[in-house]
Amino acid sequence: MLSLYDTVSRKKIPLVPLMQDRVGIYTCGPTVYRYVHIGNLRTYLLTDLILRAVRFAGLAPFSVQNITDMGHMHQEQLEQTEDKVVAAARAAGKTAKEIAEFFTEAYFRDCRRMHFLPSDVYPRASAHVPEMIAVAKELERQGVTYGEGGYLYFDVTKAKGYGELSGAVLGEGEAAGRTDESIHLRKHRPEDFSLWLAADPGREFLWDSPWGPGWPGWHIECAAMAVKYLGTEFDIHVGGVDLRFPHHENSRAMAMTATGGRFASVWVHAAHLLVDGHKMSKSLANEYTLDDLDARGASPLDFRYHCLTLHYRTPMNFTWEAQAASSKALSRLREAFDSRGATAGATVAGGEAEVYRRRFREAIQDDLNAPRAIAVVHEAARSGLSGEALGVLAGEWDQVLGVGLLKTSPGKAAVDGVPAEEIAPGEVVDLALRRDRCRREKKFPEADALREKIREAGYEVVDGKDEPARLKKL
Ligand code: AMP
Ligand code: ZN
After folding, report:
1. How much distance in Å is there from the Cα of 270 to the middle of ligand 1?
2. Measured from the CB, is residue 42 less than 6 Å from ligand 1?
3. Predicted TM-score of the model (pTM)
4. Coarse DSSP helix, strand, coil percentages of the chain, rounded to the nearest 5 percent
5. Residues 6 or more apart from 81 whose CB is under 8 A from it?
6. Would you state the pLDDT for residue 202?
7. Which end of the chain is less crowded, N or C, counting CB atoms within 10 A of the terminal residue's CB?
8. How many CB atoms are closer than 10 A to CB 137?
9. For residues 44 and 111, what is the distance between their CA atoms, to the nearest angstrom?
10. Is 71 a pocket residue for ligand 1 (Cβ < 6 Å)?
């Protein structure tokens, strides 16, 4: 069974899907005002690895990755009263919408180059403001907000479990030191955060709301979209370690308070990538993109392989030398498979092959230990296994690694065959989860009423014995 390290419980926990027919996964996606750099791609590779490992475990992932296409005010933008997308648009003489569309496409292109399996939904933040307003209204109704003059804040002292994810303690440490939004203050404490902000004059993105014209805060974005597409409780939440606080702590606090649900069961965080020991930055000119790598002879799959030689929770120090060594190791591996006559498409493997197969599977299932899995691949390539057996194994393994182990079909097995299932929307999943709970609590009339509602939405729940329920389209 696949186990993943969960940031909240601080241990590896086995993945037990809430719904039998899908593993719901949410990833904080890019803010589309620039090309993504190799650090971002390392984090998105974690999502891809999870999707592939889930499929490898015989389960069906349902992946949602948001596109932040309206930018957000971080410190520097607050001072300029401009968000990232708007600022980039102004600099380029384009509209924010044009900038967002351009960089969204560029992002998708980079994902394809990296052989990332596509997510099922890529909700745009700008198209989900009504959902965000609904969450804010619900929080206001519960009396956990305050504000004036077009601003609405979330009072974190009223959130159950605040700090569980990041270890943040109210009034202490990183949380207390933050000055984001302090400019607009009227906040009761630094950790409180905005759900709604009054509009800056002439702002390109502007929405009406019960609190006046303005725009939503950043954290509410992911909470609203995750709940809309995955339901109030889903399996895995993914992001880079820098987002743990305040973004993830706040998304979680807000979603759990608004819905009463658990939100994500497992929180997975990717460690950062440094370049030559430094944080990437404009001033160091080391914010490398895939094109920069290409220009130095490292393909996207070379970079992918390079990332996989380190565990995702280990910080990665990118150097050109290390990348060159990885690129060479990958081509040697491909040659080894090639020279042994390994080809995709054969169907037999047994005996010794089974040992390698099992070791690879165990490594992946153990919190996605790709470096250990890659060591197994190298050993197998050097072993006495027949070309045919190697071909079968390489085909299987590349479903997970996606680096194009077999020259004849680089990465093919990995990118093809995404199941085009009809997957129930978040609201229906929610009904099914609520029904499950009612049944466990022996509230059968309520459970039956929920089944009826699910039917009205076009789905049937199929109960498995001692297993989570499954949703079938009627
Ligand atoms: P951003 O566009 O800055 O919000 O980042 C998008 C994703 O990339 C987030 O999940 C970040 O945590 C992640 N990320 C940002 N910088 C790095 C880095 N240097 N290494 C790895 N992941 C990063
Ligand atoms: Zn997010």
Report:
1. 9
2. yes
3. 0.88
4. 45, 15, 35
5. 73, 200
6. 72
7. N
8. 18
9. 8
10. no
385: tokens are 């296994």
Q: Mean pLDDT for the chain? A: 87
Any atom of ligand 1 within 6 Å of the Cβ of 67: no
pLDDT for the residue 82: 58
**Ligand 1 pocket member 28 (CB < 6 A):** yes
Where do runs of H (alpha helix) occur along 155-295?
173-177, 218-230, 249-259, 290-295
What number is the average pLDDT over the span 32-36? 91
Query: What are the structural domain ranges in the chain?
Result: 3-270, 297-417, 426-473
Which numbered ligand comes closest to the C-alpha of 218? 2
pLDDT band of 463, cuts 50, 70, 90: confident
Ligand nearest to the CA of 255: 2
- Work out whether the CA dihedral 401, 405, 406, 412 comes out positive or negative: positive
| pLDDT at site 349 | 61
Omega before residue 61 within 30° of 0, cis: no
pLDDT digits (tens, 9 = 90+) for 188-222: 888 899 999 888 777 778 899 999 999 898 899 99
Helix (H) or strand (E) holding 265: strand 263-270
Work out the burial of residue 158: count CB atoms within 10 Å of its CB; fewer than 13 is exposed, 13-18 middle, 19 or more buried: middle
Give the integer Cα–Cα distance in Å for 79 and 81.
Answer: 5
> What local confidence, expressed as pLDDT, does residue 168 receive?
82
Could you say which ligand is closest to the alpha carbon of residue 269? 1
The DSSP bridge partners found for residue 432 are none
Residue type, 323: Q
Q: What is the pLDDT of residue 206?
A: 87
Identify the bridge partners of residue 471 per DSSP, sorted by sequence position: 461
In single-letter form, the type of residue at position 195 comes to L
Non-local (6+) Cβ contacts of 195 within 8 A are 132, 135, 136, 139, 145, 152, 153, 154, 216, 217, 220, 254
Distance CA 244, CA 267 (A): 9
Which residue's alpha carbon is at the smallest distance from atom 9 of ligand 1? 240
Side-chain half-sphere exposure of 331, counting CA atoms within 13 A: 9
Check if the beta carbon of residue 106 is closer than 8 Å to that of residue 118: no
Q: Report residue 266's pLDDT band, with 50, 70 and 90 as the boundaries.
A: very high
Residue of 9 and 409 predicted with greater confidence: 9
Quickly tell me which residue has 């905005």 as its tokens. 194
- Is residue 39 within 6 Å of ligand 1 at its C-beta? yes
Which amino acid residue places its CA nearest to atom 19 of ligand 1?
Answer: 39
CATH assignment, 3-270: 3.40.50.620
Model pLDDT, residue 427: 78
- Judge if the beta carbon of residue 271 lies within 6 A of ligand 1: no
